[in-house]
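From the pipeline queue, job 12 of 40. The input is one protein chain; the requested action is below.

Action: predict structure.
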Amino acid sequence: MSDSRSRSSPPVPRAALDALLGDAVGGNPIRRAMWLDELDRRLSPLLPPSLAAHARLANVDGDRLVYLVDSPVWHARLRLASSELIDAARSLGLDVTRFVVRTTKLVPGAQAQSGPAVLPVSATARAAVRDALASLRGTEDKPTTDDP
C-alpha cells in the first residue's frame, strides 16, 4: 500500500522551513530572531564585561528596548547604562526612547558559570556513591571518618 501524497508534495520539514523563511509569512520569526541576535552583538560591547555576561537583548518593541538579566543586582547596573544603550540603538537606526529590564532566572545566551554547579550532597548519598565505586573496582573502600 503506497501513499500518493508523499510523492506529490515536498517533505514536511522542507515545506515548514520554506514557509518560515519565506517573505509571505507575516512577522518572519526566524529572521527577526537573527536580527535581534545581531543587534545584541552590536550593543553588548558597550556594556562592562561583567554586566554583559549577565544581560541579553530580548526584544525591540516599538519604542522600547527590552533586556533580560539574571538577578536584581544586574538589573540595577543595566538601568545605569540605559541611556548609552538607547543612544547606540538610535545610532543604528532604531526609533527607541524607552528602556525596559526584566529579571529572569535564565538569560538565553548569557555566559555560563565558570565552574560546575555545586549541589548539596547528603552523607548517605556520598556513602552510596563510594560503595558503588568500590563494587565496580572490585575492592572494598573503607569509609573514612574525615569525609564531610
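Job complete. Residues 13-111 form a domain with the GMP Synthetase; Chain A, domain 3 fold (CATH 3.30.300.180).
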